[in-house]
UniProtKB/TrEMBL annotation:
Keywords, ordered alphabetically: Coiled coil
Record bears the keyword Coiled coil: yes
Coiled-coil annotated residue ranges, if any: 210-295, 461-488
Organism: Nonomuraea terrae
GO MF annotation list: ATP hydrolysis activity
Record protein name field: Nuclease SbcCD subunit C
SUPFAM superfamilies reported in the protein's UniProt record: P-loop containing nucleoside triphosphate hydrolases
InterPro entries: P-loop_NTPase (IPR027417), Rad50/SbcC_AAA (IPR038729)
Amino acid sequence: MLIKSVRIVRFKLMRDVTIHFSADPAKPLTVIRGENGSGKTTLLYAMLWGLYGMQGLTKIANVDTPRLTSTFCPPGVPVSVEVEIVFEHTDDLGTSSEYRLRRMVLETPMADTPPRRARDQVTLFRLTPEGDKPVNPAEAWIERLIPQRLSDLFFTNGDDIQKFISGRVHSHERQSKVHQAIRELLGIDQLTSSVADLKYVHGNIKRRVSAESGKDAEELENMCENLRRQITEQEEKRANLETRQKSMEAQQHEWNRELNQLRGIGDLDELNTQINALKKRIEGCRKRVEAALADMRTAFKSQALSLALAATSVDQGRAKLEELADRRVIPNTSLKILEDRLEDGECICGGDLRLGSVLRDHVQHLLDEQRENSEMAQRLTELRYDARGLAVAATDNETFAARREATLVAYTAARDDLSRADVELKQAETKRRLIDDTRVRTLTDELAAVGKKIGDGVLELGRIEERISSLETQLGEREQELAKVTQKNKANRDLIIKRDVAEELRSLAERVQRRLEGEYVQMVSARLQEIFLSIVGAEPDAQLGVFRGVSITEKFDIVVESQHGTNLDTDYELNGASQRALTLAFIWSLMEVAGITAPRLIDTPLGMVSGGVKQRMVNTITHPPTGDQPPYQVILLLTRSEIMEVGELLSQHAGAFATISCSKDYPTDLVYEWPGEEPEVRACSCTHEQACRICARNIDNAHGLAFRNMEAAI
């Protein structure tokens, strides 16, 4: 979906404003210039209302009943508000069509109460050479094209641009926003519904097959159903507990932040630093202990230990085998020699071994005896060679002893360090609790309580995981039994074919779902890192750099890693420019991987951004798509100061320009007075390098703008 134009009538101070947007893939950028208070945010709100109605507006405006009309409209007089959006959409078959969406409402301003508002009238038409053809239902069709849940991605207010990464929003809320955006744009929600439907169909067919396969099969199917129900219950418990954990972790984060912000109370800062360092030290000690224990377990499973424990018995057996070898009992080679002599008819001593001779009968008797003993001799021969191998391996006994000694030393040292760190941590936490400040002590107690609850929750999650694993094992065993019984009893062949097809479809859908949630999320994460590091000008391997990388975690949190391997606090360790770069990188990478063609409108995106970062940011988010990148549309609402340093890039990438101004700014800022008794917002066709009798401002000389002595109205 690419927006081609918008017409706004009687929305706030926009009495009748029309703006055209670039839908050219080679020049995807539209620049709308406007100073603070000129109507940029009004334009954003009007487009949101036009697409989504009051739901879209209340979400971003943070007002329950926002007023659509101007405050200059007299109370009690109905006003017709209208927004008309013309857009282009290309369907899955590659056919492009043009549409016109119109939303109208009659609003009556009131003196002391919220305005009265009639029901919105929404129409959608497909524009064809034969005439306009209605599309119904209009709102459902728009929701499918550009979901209101993702309006944060498509229409962004510069002040709220960090909502995907800012710690000022609880972590679980950030994660939810990122997760929802990924699921929606990658089509995972629709796929999840399909998987649920396929599971339902597959379950019904399986029950029918079991019913036709006899009582045993039916009982096994009931057992499987019961196990599946228990697994679902445990998974719901896990999900609820994880949500509760996230909420407590968010509260813990806020309390820690508040505690850390307190200043001038004893040695609080020093204690906090010490406590954090001790916690990291304890974690490192625990890892060392676990590593030493793992090394011990590996050593105790080794052949060297077995040889060390059985060395005497092995040596005695090996000596006995060597004795048999010395006596020529093994290896048994006489069998072959006797057979060869009988075949030749002559003994090695020259005696006669032809048929009928006495000596031949004697040799034949010896051959029969040797054959009876040959199997035992062969086994003893194999044992002798195996024993020689053990003799070589036994030389590793000293290595095992040395490894055991080194592992014990490492384990003891780690345990001692852990004990010392634990004592020091308790002492530091005790000191922090003793600080004579009511709020500090309250926060400390609350943190201790919530920390215990979080710890208990982690243990409970572990127990739930164990129960789920056990139930899944039982389910697998019962399903195998059920498959055997079904095959034995030969249920209806058509039903079995339907069951197998349903199972294949369900399995395929689940694999695709896992791939989208795994591989594609990693693709978004990789592209996010590439775009972010490009904007901020960071090299991951630079020794003096700040950023090493960016990633999306399994919990759908966007984290920034420093060159030292630590995660940076996106509120306090990232400047405003880096925060904006991170959010824009996320939006761009997600839309690129998802292959979504949709508008990306951002109000005041370059605040707090300057220099090279500003130029790289503008170039990254406005350059035409290359290679396999899908076409996109970028609409930037910029002030004159934001345009400074990037004017040349805007000229290269923009296919449409407009400037909006408000008459209330005359004469303080605007040069020319407009006719009219009430303030209003107007749009003109001036580019970022021009000014006219509508938009000329007193500061334009400083920006080197070319003046056009006309009213360049659109």
